[in-house]
Structure prediction request, 453 residues.
Amino acid sequence: MKKIINLSVLILGVAFVSGQTKEDSIQFNRISTEILNNGKGYNELKELTKDIGNRLSGSQAYEESVKWAAQKLKDAGADKVWLQEVMIPVWERGKESLHIKTSSGSWKSLKMLSLGNSEGTAGKDISGEIIMVKSLEEYDRLPAEKVKDKIVFFNYPFNQGHVQTFIAYREAGAYRRTAASLTAKKGGKFAVIRSLSSAFDDVPHTGNMRYDDNVSKVPAVTIGNTSADELEALLKNQKVTAKLNSNCGMRGEKLSHSVIGEITGKKDQNVIVVGGHLDSWDVGEGAHDDGAGIVQSIEVLRTFKKLGIQNNHTIRAVCFANEENGTKGGKQYGKTAKDHNEKHLFAIESDAGGYAPRGISLEMDNSKRDQIKSWVNLFLPYGVYNFEGKYSGSDIAPLHEMGVPTAELVPDPQRYFDIHHTSEDTFEKVNRRELLLGSTVMTQLIYMIDKNW
Prediction:
Protein backbone atom coordinates (compact mmCIF):
# COMPACT_ATOMS: atom_id res chain seq x y z
CA MET A 1 0.00 0.00 0.00
CA LYS A 2 2.85 2.39 0.85
CA LYS A 3 4.35 1.97 -2.62
CA ILE A 4 1.03 2.81 -4.26
CA ILE A 5 0.64 5.98 -2.18
CA ASN A 6 4.18 7.06 -2.97
CA LEU A 7 3.56 6.53 -6.67
CA SER A 8 0.52 8.81 -6.52
CA VAL A 9 2.54 11.47 -4.77
CA LEU A 10 5.23 11.15 -7.43
CA ILE A 11 2.71 11.49 -10.25
CA LEU A 12 1.11 14.53 -8.66
CA GLY A 13 4.57 16.03 -8.24
CA VAL A 14 5.14 15.64 -11.98
CA ALA A 15 1.82 17.40 -12.55
CA PHE A 16 3.05 20.45 -10.64
CA VAL A 17 6.22 20.52 -12.71
CA SER A 18 4.24 20.35 -15.96
CA GLY A 19 2.50 23.63 -15.13
CA GLN A 20 -0.59 22.44 -13.29
CA THR A 21 -1.28 23.89 -9.90
CA LYS A 22 -1.56 22.18 -6.56
CA GLU A 23 -5.09 23.59 -6.45
CA ASP A 24 -6.00 21.53 -9.53
CA SER A 25 -4.72 18.32 -7.93
CA ILE A 26 -6.62 19.08 -4.74
CA GLN A 27 -9.79 19.78 -6.71
CA PHE A 28 -9.37 16.52 -8.66
CA ASN A 29 -9.12 14.71 -5.34
CA ARG A 30 -12.20 16.46 -3.96
CA ILE A 31 -14.19 15.51 -7.05
CA SER A 32 -13.07 11.88 -6.88
CA THR A 33 -13.69 11.57 -3.15
CA GLU A 34 -17.18 13.05 -3.43
CA ILE A 35 -18.29 10.87 -6.35
CA LEU A 36 -16.79 7.60 -5.14
CA ASN A 37 -18.29 8.05 -1.70
CA ASN A 38 -21.56 9.81 -2.39
CA GLY A 39 -22.24 9.49 -6.11
CA LYS A 40 -25.81 8.59 -7.00
CA GLY A 41 -25.18 7.36 -10.54
CA TYR A 42 -25.14 3.65 -9.75
CA ASN A 43 -28.44 3.74 -7.88
CA GLU A 44 -29.95 5.94 -10.56
CA LEU A 45 -28.83 3.49 -13.23
CA LYS A 46 -30.60 0.75 -11.34
CA GLU A 47 -33.80 2.81 -11.38
CA LEU A 48 -33.50 3.53 -15.08
CA THR A 49 -32.80 -0.06 -16.07
CA LYS A 50 -34.93 -1.99 -13.60
CA ASP A 51 -37.92 0.31 -13.20
CA ILE A 52 -38.10 1.45 -16.83
CA GLY A 53 -35.97 -1.03 -18.76
CA ASN A 54 -35.04 -0.80 -22.43
CA ARG A 55 -36.04 2.46 -24.08
CA LEU A 56 -36.44 2.25 -27.83
CA SER A 57 -37.30 5.59 -29.44
CA GLY A 58 -41.03 5.92 -29.82
CA SER A 59 -41.88 3.46 -27.07
CA GLN A 60 -43.83 4.20 -23.91
CA ALA A 61 -40.73 3.23 -21.92
CA TYR A 62 -38.76 5.96 -23.64
CA GLU A 63 -41.38 8.53 -22.72
CA GLU A 64 -41.18 7.35 -19.10
CA SER A 65 -37.41 7.80 -19.20
CA VAL A 66 -37.87 11.42 -20.34
CA LYS A 67 -39.84 12.20 -17.18
CA TRP A 68 -37.31 10.28 -15.09
CA ALA A 69 -34.32 12.16 -16.53
CA ALA A 70 -35.96 15.55 -16.05
CA GLN A 71 -36.57 14.78 -12.37
CA LYS A 72 -33.03 13.51 -11.82
CA LEU A 73 -31.57 16.67 -13.32
CA LYS A 74 -33.71 18.74 -10.98
CA ASP A 75 -32.62 16.57 -8.05
CA ALA A 76 -28.99 17.12 -9.09
CA GLY A 77 -29.43 20.85 -8.59
CA ALA A 78 -29.68 22.06 -12.18
CA ASP A 79 -30.66 25.73 -12.34
CA LYS A 80 -32.82 25.03 -15.37
CA VAL A 81 -34.31 21.83 -16.83
CA TRP A 82 -36.27 21.61 -20.05
CA LEU A 83 -37.42 19.23 -22.79
CA GLN A 84 -36.30 19.82 -26.36
CA GLU A 85 -38.79 18.71 -28.99
CA VAL A 86 -37.55 16.14 -31.51
CA MET A 87 -39.38 14.37 -34.31
CA ILE A 88 -38.17 10.78 -34.15
CA PRO A 89 -38.66 7.71 -36.38
CA VAL A 90 -40.70 4.91 -34.84
CA TRP A 91 -39.58 1.34 -35.50
CA GLU A 92 -41.20 -1.71 -33.92
CA ARG A 93 -39.85 -5.25 -33.76
CA GLY A 94 -42.85 -7.49 -33.19
CA LYS A 95 -42.78 -11.27 -33.27
CA GLU A 96 -40.00 -12.82 -35.34
CA SER A 97 -38.37 -16.18 -36.07
CA LEU A 98 -35.66 -17.70 -38.26
CA HIS A 99 -35.41 -21.40 -39.11
CA ILE A 100 -32.98 -23.40 -41.21
CA LYS A 101 -32.96 -26.93 -42.57
CA THR A 102 -30.82 -29.14 -44.75
CA SER A 103 -32.24 -31.27 -47.55
CA SER A 104 -32.35 -34.30 -45.25
CA GLY A 105 -33.26 -32.54 -41.99
CA SER A 106 -36.14 -30.81 -40.29
CA TRP A 107 -36.55 -27.13 -39.48
CA LYS A 108 -34.29 -25.84 -36.71
CA SER A 109 -34.88 -22.53 -34.93
CA LEU A 110 -31.95 -20.11 -34.67
CA LYS A 111 -31.58 -17.33 -32.12
CA MET A 112 -31.89 -14.12 -34.09
CA LEU A 113 -32.78 -10.45 -34.03
CA SER A 114 -33.95 -8.23 -36.83
CA LEU A 115 -31.65 -5.30 -37.39
CA GLY A 116 -33.00 -1.94 -36.32
CA ASN A 117 -35.03 -0.08 -38.99
CA SER A 118 -35.30 -3.25 -41.05
CA GLU A 119 -38.55 -4.07 -42.78
CA GLY A 120 -40.03 -7.46 -42.01
CA THR A 121 -42.08 -10.05 -43.87
CA ALA A 122 -45.52 -8.73 -42.81
CA GLY A 123 -46.00 -11.88 -40.77
CA LYS A 124 -45.55 -14.19 -43.78
CA ASP A 125 -42.90 -16.86 -44.26
CA ILE A 126 -40.15 -16.05 -46.75
CA SER A 127 -37.80 -18.89 -47.57
CA GLY A 128 -34.99 -19.73 -49.93
CA GLU A 129 -31.57 -21.27 -50.32
CA ILE A 130 -28.71 -19.68 -48.36
CA ILE A 131 -25.49 -18.61 -50.02
CA MET A 132 -22.54 -17.50 -47.90
CA VAL A 133 -19.89 -14.83 -48.45
CA LYS A 134 -17.03 -13.98 -46.09
CA SER A 135 -16.39 -10.42 -47.29
CA LEU A 136 -17.91 -7.54 -49.20
CA GLU A 137 -15.30 -8.08 -51.90
CA GLU A 138 -16.45 -11.68 -52.34
CA TYR A 139 -20.05 -10.54 -52.60
CA ASP A 140 -19.16 -7.90 -55.19
CA ARG A 141 -17.72 -10.63 -57.41
CA LEU A 142 -20.93 -12.68 -57.34
CA PRO A 143 -23.05 -12.26 -60.48
CA ALA A 144 -26.67 -11.26 -59.87
CA GLU A 145 -27.98 -14.59 -61.16
CA LYS A 146 -26.17 -16.35 -58.30
CA VAL A 147 -27.94 -14.15 -55.76
CA LYS A 148 -31.44 -13.85 -57.25
CA ASP A 149 -34.11 -15.40 -54.98
CA LYS A 150 -31.44 -16.49 -52.49
CA ILE A 151 -30.78 -15.58 -48.86
CA VAL A 152 -27.34 -14.04 -48.47
CA PHE A 153 -25.36 -14.89 -45.32
CA PHE A 154 -22.65 -12.29 -44.71
CA ASN A 155 -20.29 -14.24 -42.48
CA TYR A 156 -17.66 -11.64 -41.61
CA PRO A 157 -16.18 -12.29 -38.15
CA PHE A 158 -15.32 -9.64 -35.58
CA ASN A 159 -11.54 -9.26 -35.84
CA GLN A 160 -10.24 -10.48 -32.49
CA GLY A 161 -6.73 -9.33 -33.35
CA HIS A 162 -7.43 -5.68 -32.67
CA VAL A 163 -6.56 -4.61 -29.14
CA GLN A 164 -8.80 -1.58 -29.67
CA THR A 165 -12.13 -3.32 -30.13
CA PHE A 166 -13.83 -0.27 -31.64
CA ILE A 167 -11.63 -0.75 -34.72
CA ALA A 168 -13.03 -4.25 -35.18
CA TYR A 169 -16.53 -2.91 -34.60
CA ARG A 170 -16.13 -0.25 -37.28
CA GLU A 171 -14.83 -2.82 -39.76
CA ALA A 172 -17.69 -5.23 -39.14
CA GLY A 173 -20.22 -2.40 -39.02
CA ALA A 174 -20.13 -2.06 -42.81
CA TYR A 175 -21.91 -5.42 -43.09
CA ARG A 176 -24.68 -4.47 -40.68
CA ARG A 177 -25.36 -1.19 -42.41
CA THR A 178 -25.29 -2.37 -46.02
CA ALA A 179 -26.24 -6.06 -46.14
CA ALA A 180 -29.93 -5.52 -46.91
CA SER A 181 -29.44 -3.10 -49.79
CA LEU A 182 -26.58 -5.12 -51.25
CA THR A 183 -28.78 -8.22 -51.19
CA ALA A 184 -31.73 -6.41 -52.78
CA LYS A 185 -29.63 -4.96 -55.60
CA LYS A 186 -28.90 -8.46 -56.86
CA GLY A 187 -32.40 -9.81 -56.31
CA GLY A 188 -31.89 -11.64 -53.01
CA LYS A 189 -34.80 -12.24 -50.63
CA PHE A 190 -33.21 -11.21 -47.34
CA ALA A 191 -29.86 -10.90 -45.59
CA VAL A 192 -28.39 -12.65 -42.57
CA ILE A 193 -25.28 -11.25 -40.89
CA ARG A 194 -22.92 -12.59 -38.26
CA SER A 195 -23.32 -10.39 -35.18
CA LEU A 196 -20.82 -7.65 -34.45
CA SER A 197 -19.70 -9.49 -31.34
CA SER A 198 -16.41 -10.10 -29.56
CA ALA A 199 -17.96 -12.90 -27.47
CA PHE A 200 -17.77 -16.62 -28.18
CA ASP A 201 -21.45 -17.29 -27.54
CA ASP A 202 -24.76 -17.47 -29.37
CA VAL A 203 -26.24 -14.11 -28.36
CA PRO A 204 -27.41 -12.08 -31.37
CA HIS A 205 -26.54 -8.37 -31.48
CA THR A 206 -28.96 -5.96 -33.10
CA GLY A 207 -28.11 -2.45 -34.32
CA ASN A 208 -29.02 0.07 -36.94
CA MET A 209 -29.05 -0.55 -40.68
CA ARG A 210 -30.08 1.60 -43.60
CA TYR A 211 -31.59 1.24 -47.03
CA ASP A 212 -30.17 2.86 -50.12
CA ASP A 213 -32.54 5.02 -52.13
CA ASN A 214 -34.43 3.34 -54.97
CA VAL A 215 -33.66 -0.16 -53.69
CA SER A 216 -36.21 -2.73 -52.49
CA LYS A 217 -36.42 -2.94 -48.71
CA VAL A 218 -35.67 -6.58 -47.99
CA PRO A 219 -35.30 -7.79 -44.38
CA ALA A 220 -31.99 -8.05 -42.55
CA VAL A 221 -31.41 -10.18 -39.47
CA THR A 222 -28.46 -11.10 -37.29
CA ILE A 223 -27.39 -14.34 -35.61
CA GLY A 224 -24.85 -15.05 -32.86
CA ASN A 225 -21.34 -16.39 -33.35
CA THR A 226 -22.15 -19.99 -32.46
CA SER A 227 -25.05 -20.16 -34.91
CA ALA A 228 -22.90 -18.49 -37.56
CA ASP A 229 -20.17 -21.11 -37.11
CA GLU A 230 -22.68 -23.96 -37.28
CA LEU A 231 -24.29 -22.52 -40.40
CA GLU A 232 -20.91 -22.09 -42.06
CA ALA A 233 -20.07 -25.73 -41.33
CA LEU A 234 -23.35 -26.91 -42.84
CA LEU A 235 -22.92 -24.84 -45.99
CA LYS A 236 -19.54 -26.35 -46.75
CA ASN A 237 -21.02 -29.59 -47.98
CA GLN A 238 -24.77 -29.25 -48.44
CA LYS A 239 -27.67 -27.05 -49.40
CA VAL A 240 -29.32 -25.17 -46.54
CA THR A 241 -32.69 -23.42 -46.69
CA ALA A 242 -33.73 -20.56 -44.42
CA LYS A 243 -37.22 -19.40 -43.47
CA LEU A 244 -37.89 -15.97 -41.95
CA ASN A 245 -41.09 -14.64 -40.41
CA SER A 246 -41.03 -11.16 -38.91
CA ASN A 247 -43.41 -8.35 -38.10
CA CYS A 248 -40.92 -5.51 -37.73
CA GLY A 249 -41.01 -2.25 -39.63
CA MET A 250 -41.16 1.52 -39.56
CA ARG A 251 -44.31 3.09 -38.13
CA GLY A 252 -43.88 6.70 -39.18
CA GLU A 253 -42.68 9.49 -36.89
CA LYS A 254 -43.77 10.99 -33.60
CA LEU A 255 -42.94 13.95 -31.41
CA SER A 256 -40.60 13.16 -28.54
CA HIS A 257 -37.92 14.93 -26.51
CA SER A 258 -34.32 15.17 -25.44
CA VAL A 259 -33.86 16.22 -21.81
CA ILE A 260 -31.54 19.08 -20.88
CA GLY A 261 -30.37 20.54 -17.57
CA GLU A 262 -27.76 23.18 -16.86
CA ILE A 263 -25.90 25.15 -14.22
CA THR A 264 -25.71 28.79 -15.24
CA GLY A 265 -22.25 30.23 -15.81
CA LYS A 266 -21.07 32.84 -13.33
CA LYS A 267 -18.89 34.64 -15.87
CA ASP A 268 -20.78 34.16 -19.14
CA GLN A 269 -23.38 32.02 -20.87
CA ASN A 270 -20.96 30.13 -23.13
CA VAL A 271 -21.84 26.44 -23.00
CA ILE A 272 -19.92 23.32 -22.06
CA VAL A 273 -21.88 20.14 -22.86
CA VAL A 274 -21.66 16.74 -21.23
CA GLY A 275 -24.05 14.08 -22.45
CA GLY A 276 -25.17 10.60 -23.39
CA HIS A 277 -28.20 9.15 -25.15
CA LEU A 278 -31.35 8.29 -23.27
CA ASP A 279 -32.74 5.77 -25.75
CA SER A 280 -31.59 2.17 -26.15
CA TRP A 281 -32.41 -0.84 -28.25
CA ASP A 282 -35.45 -2.89 -27.33
CA VAL A 283 -33.50 -5.83 -25.92
CA GLY A 284 -31.69 -5.96 -22.59
CA GLU A 285 -31.85 -2.93 -20.33
CA GLY A 286 -29.60 -0.42 -22.06
CA ALA A 287 -27.30 -0.27 -19.04
CA HIS A 288 -23.89 0.21 -20.65
CA ASP A 289 -25.44 1.60 -23.85
CA ASP A 290 -26.17 4.21 -22.78
CA GLY A 291 -27.74 4.37 -19.34
CA ALA A 292 -24.19 4.69 -18.03
CA GLY A 293 -23.54 7.85 -20.04
CA ILE A 294 -26.80 9.39 -18.85
CA VAL A 295 -26.17 8.93 -15.12
CA GLN A 296 -22.53 9.95 -15.50
CA SER A 297 -23.58 13.21 -17.14
CA ILE A 298 -26.15 13.98 -14.44
CA GLU A 299 -23.45 13.23 -11.83
CA VAL A 300 -21.28 15.99 -13.28
CA LEU A 301 -23.89 18.63 -12.50
CA ARG A 302 -24.57 17.17 -9.07
CA THR A 303 -20.89 17.23 -8.15
CA PHE A 304 -20.36 20.84 -9.21
CA LYS A 305 -23.33 21.82 -7.07
CA LYS A 306 -22.41 19.64 -4.10
CA LEU A 307 -18.82 20.88 -3.95
CA GLY A 308 -19.82 24.49 -4.55
CA ILE A 309 -17.57 24.81 -7.60
CA GLN A 310 -18.29 28.22 -9.14
CA ASN A 311 -18.32 27.46 -12.84
CA ASN A 312 -17.35 30.31 -15.16
CA HIS A 313 -19.39 29.02 -18.10
CA THR A 314 -22.75 27.28 -18.35
CA ILE A 315 -22.40 23.54 -17.88
CA ARG A 316 -25.15 21.66 -19.63
CA ALA A 317 -26.06 17.97 -19.36
CA VAL A 318 -27.92 16.67 -22.41
CA CYS A 319 -29.82 13.37 -22.49
CA PHE A 320 -30.10 12.94 -26.25
CA ALA A 321 -33.10 11.29 -27.90
CA ASN A 322 -32.94 8.72 -30.70
CA GLU A 323 -29.23 8.04 -31.01
CA GLU A 324 -29.65 4.37 -31.83
CA ASN A 325 -31.80 4.52 -34.94
CA GLY A 326 -31.71 8.05 -36.24
CA THR A 327 -29.52 10.47 -34.18
CA LYS A 328 -32.39 12.94 -34.41
CA GLY A 329 -31.80 14.25 -30.89
CA GLY A 330 -28.20 15.25 -31.59
CA LYS A 331 -29.14 16.81 -34.92
CA GLN A 332 -31.95 18.82 -33.35
CA TYR A 333 -29.69 19.99 -30.53
CA GLY A 334 -27.09 21.20 -33.02
CA LYS A 335 -29.71 22.95 -35.13
CA THR A 336 -31.23 24.69 -32.11
CA ALA A 337 -27.82 25.81 -30.87
CA LYS A 338 -27.05 27.27 -34.30
CA ASP A 339 -30.45 28.93 -34.66
CA HIS A 340 -30.11 30.54 -31.22
CA ASN A 341 -26.50 31.61 -31.86
CA GLU A 342 -25.36 29.82 -28.72
CA LYS A 343 -21.62 29.73 -28.27
CA HIS A 344 -20.40 26.27 -27.29
CA LEU A 345 -16.87 25.99 -25.95
CA PHE A 346 -16.65 22.21 -25.66
CA ALA A 347 -18.73 19.03 -25.69
CA ILE A 348 -18.00 15.54 -24.39
CA GLU A 349 -20.13 12.43 -24.72
CA SER A 350 -20.06 9.16 -22.80
CA ASP A 351 -21.34 6.40 -25.10
CA ALA A 352 -18.83 3.57 -24.92
CA GLY A 353 -19.97 1.77 -21.78
CA GLY A 354 -19.66 2.20 -18.04
CA TYR A 355 -16.34 0.39 -17.69
CA ALA A 356 -13.27 1.91 -16.02
CA PRO A 357 -12.12 5.07 -17.85
CA ARG A 358 -8.81 4.74 -19.64
CA GLY A 359 -8.68 7.86 -21.79
CA ILE A 360 -10.35 10.79 -23.49
CA SER A 361 -10.56 10.98 -27.27
CA LEU A 362 -10.12 14.52 -28.59
CA GLU A 363 -11.62 15.68 -31.89
CA MET A 364 -10.35 19.25 -32.13
CA ASP A 365 -7.49 21.37 -33.44
CA ASN A 366 -3.97 20.64 -32.33
CA SER A 367 -3.65 23.61 -30.00
CA LYS A 368 -6.66 22.48 -27.96
CA ARG A 369 -5.50 18.86 -28.07
CA ASP A 370 -2.06 19.82 -26.82
CA GLN A 371 -3.51 21.87 -23.98
CA ILE A 372 -5.67 18.99 -22.75
CA LYS A 373 -2.84 16.50 -23.20
CA SER A 374 -0.65 18.74 -21.03
CA TRP A 375 -2.99 17.85 -18.15
CA VAL A 376 -2.28 14.12 -18.47
CA ASN A 377 -0.39 13.87 -15.19
CA LEU A 378 -3.41 15.16 -13.31
CA PHE A 379 -5.41 12.25 -14.70
CA LEU A 380 -2.84 9.47 -14.29
CA PRO A 381 -3.70 8.72 -10.63
CA TYR A 382 -7.24 7.94 -11.81
CA GLY A 383 -6.11 5.40 -14.40
CA VAL A 384 -6.55 7.71 -17.39
CA TYR A 385 -3.61 7.86 -19.78
CA ASN A 386 -4.83 7.61 -23.38
CA PHE A 387 -5.40 10.96 -25.11
CA GLU A 388 -4.47 9.82 -28.61
CA GLY A 389 -7.94 9.21 -30.09
CA LYS A 390 -9.35 11.72 -32.57
CA TYR A 391 -13.06 10.89 -32.60
CA SER A 392 -16.13 11.83 -30.60
CA GLY A 393 -19.73 10.71 -30.21
CA SER A 394 -22.41 10.82 -32.89
CA ASP A 395 -24.78 12.99 -30.85
CA ILE A 396 -22.26 15.81 -30.65
CA ALA A 397 -21.12 15.46 -34.27
CA PRO A 398 -23.38 18.38 -35.33
CA LEU A 399 -21.61 20.58 -32.78
CA HIS A 400 -18.24 19.46 -34.11
CA GLU A 401 -19.35 20.37 -37.64
CA MET A 402 -20.05 23.86 -36.28
CA GLY A 403 -16.44 24.11 -35.11
CA VAL A 404 -16.93 23.12 -31.48
CA PRO A 405 -14.08 21.07 -29.94
CA THR A 406 -15.58 17.67 -29.03
CA ALA A 407 -14.45 14.62 -27.10
CA GLU A 408 -15.53 11.19 -25.93
CA LEU A 409 -14.83 9.31 -22.72
CA VAL A 410 -12.82 6.17 -23.47
CA PRO A 411 -13.59 3.33 -21.05
CA ASP A 412 -11.76 0.02 -21.10
CA PRO A 413 -13.08 -1.55 -24.35
CA GLN A 414 -12.42 -5.26 -23.88
CA ARG A 415 -15.87 -6.35 -22.63
CA TYR A 416 -18.16 -3.86 -24.32
CA PHE A 417 -18.78 -5.73 -27.56
CA ASP A 418 -19.55 -8.95 -25.72
CA ILE A 419 -22.91 -7.44 -24.74
CA HIS A 420 -23.40 -4.41 -27.00
CA HIS A 421 -26.97 -4.20 -28.41
CA THR A 422 -28.02 -7.47 -26.80
CA SER A 423 -30.28 -8.90 -24.13
CA GLU A 424 -27.13 -9.18 -21.99
CA ASP A 425 -26.72 -5.41 -21.56
CA THR A 426 -28.16 -5.31 -18.05
CA PHE A 427 -27.56 -3.45 -14.82
CA GLU A 428 -25.77 -6.46 -13.32
CA LYS A 429 -22.98 -6.06 -15.90
CA VAL A 430 -22.05 -2.61 -14.53
CA ASN A 431 -19.53 -2.18 -11.73
CA ARG A 432 -20.27 0.67 -9.34
CA ARG A 433 -16.71 1.96 -8.95
CA GLU A 434 -15.96 1.81 -12.65
CA LEU A 435 -19.16 3.68 -13.47
CA LEU A 436 -18.45 6.38 -10.90
CA LEU A 437 -14.84 6.75 -12.01
CA GLY A 438 -16.20 7.66 -15.45
CA SER A 439 -18.28 10.40 -13.83
CA THR A 440 -15.20 11.49 -11.92
CA VAL A 441 -13.00 11.87 -14.98
CA MET A 442 -15.62 13.80 -16.96
CA THR A 443 -16.19 16.14 -14.02
CA GLN A 444 -12.45 16.68 -13.65
CA LEU A 445 -12.07 17.42 -17.35
CA ILE A 446 -14.97 19.85 -17.38
CA TYR A 447 -13.53 21.56 -14.32
CA MET A 448 -10.28 22.14 -16.23
CA ILE A 449 -12.05 23.26 -19.42
CA ASP A 450 -14.25 25.66 -17.46
CA LYS A 451 -11.25 27.11 -15.64
CA ASN A 452 -8.92 27.48 -18.62
CA TRP A 453 -11.06 28.15 -21.71
Remarks:
- The chain has 15 helices and 15 strands.
- Residues 119 and 217 are 6 Å apart (CA to CA).
